[in-house]
Amino acid sequence: MAITEHVDLSKFMAGLQKRNPGQPEFVQAVQEVAEDIFEFIKDKSVYHEYQILRRLAEPDRVISFRVCWEDDEGNIRVQRGWRVQNNNAIGPYKGGIRFHSAVDESTLKFLAFEQTFKNALTGLPMGGAKGGANFNPRGKSDHEVMRFCQSFMTELYRHVGADVDVPAGDIGVGAREIGYMFGQHKRITNSFTGVLTGKGVEYGGSLIRTEATGYGTGYFLADMLKTRGLQLDGHTVVISGSGNVAIHAAEKITQLGGLVVTLSDSGGFIHDPKGIDAGKLAWVKSQKTRKRGRISDYVREFPEAEFIAGRPPWCVPCDIAVPCATQNELTGDDARVLLGNGCLAVAEGSNMPCTLEAAHLFKAAEILYAPGKAANAGGVAVSGLEISQNVARMSWKQNEVEQLLVGIMSEIHDRCVEYGRRAGTNHIDYVRGANVAGFKKVADAMLAFGVV
Ligand code: GLU
Fold first, then answer.
1. Does the pTM exceed 0.90?
2. Is the pLDDT assigned to residue 7 strictly greater than 90?
3. Gap from CA of 431 to ligand 1 centroid (Å)
4. 211-366 — its CATH code?
């Protein structure tokens, strides 16, 4: 008898936990997917026989390496870098690079696993990967960041390539870092290829790539509301974060009629009851990107707002919550507060912002709840479009790319509806829909390849 016939969800998770000690984020990400997939494959023995989920939850490879660099005082500093290549069944590995002091193998394995499903959902041919280093760019000079990026790429270049693995940005990695890494890759390999996305438009980047993750989240939210005959107009929206994703989610949600009243960073949140309109957002953008300032500065510029230190913004009454900061930023207690305040929709701009408890509460309450792998897939989708433009050696106009983004987000929404509609009801379980649709595409490609 095949061994797989005996395996149920709890045994599967016990094995995963045992094989990945000290990696709670990775275990959490797999658990969230496995809950839906075990249900989906219970009458589909071929996925069991070929151990598809077991194989998906074992990265193709985890590369870890030393990154040495010299700070401005002449001290030699040593960081650890990684690239986790999770699965390339449907296309070259693809996923961002994160620079943050808390980056570790567990975080990058969870992100690479999530990315595999997210990329499949976009409908574009991209496998899943993630990389990064425990390097904190905050407070570092431009030249320190440059030396770090060059050293990081001096090792990473062996493992990436336009047809192999195409990294991009993530937390702590934006246009500046991508520029330094691309420059170093070009220099070492003496080739100009589309090895990274999120590039500057001068050297092969796509218009709208910077905005895409946040804009896509806004579009996805509007699509979800439509299923209940609602629109953003007249709804109060609480957003966490104040980086690239948060700013552009706020911009699109405001354009679509929502009233965005909060933004945050690790120091606390600002609450502006009148709304963070386009003018105020432009100010935040320049502060956060060019001056790398803190969100608390907002209240000096706009005194009608208040700054609340040391807390996330979920206590502010709202109709819609859009977490755009980082993983596990919204706990079970936060979810209870949001639900108690009548929150009707949650769209994840960041990856796995809700703890497992918070996610279960949102699911049970049957509110509109979109997981990051669906709601924030716009970023990697436009990365996919950047790859296409690089291969064709052309660049598309801003409105062309944005229209493609709108189309991709609504296709992702359709896929979630197809696999997520709860039998006999009108309720759509977007978590299940995203997990099953992403899984099915990758799994069927893996079946086609046999056991490899
Ligand atoms: N880091 C982004 C994400 O979480 C984008 C990845 C990419 O564009 O490759 O999806």
1. yes
2. no
3. 19
4. 3.40.50.720
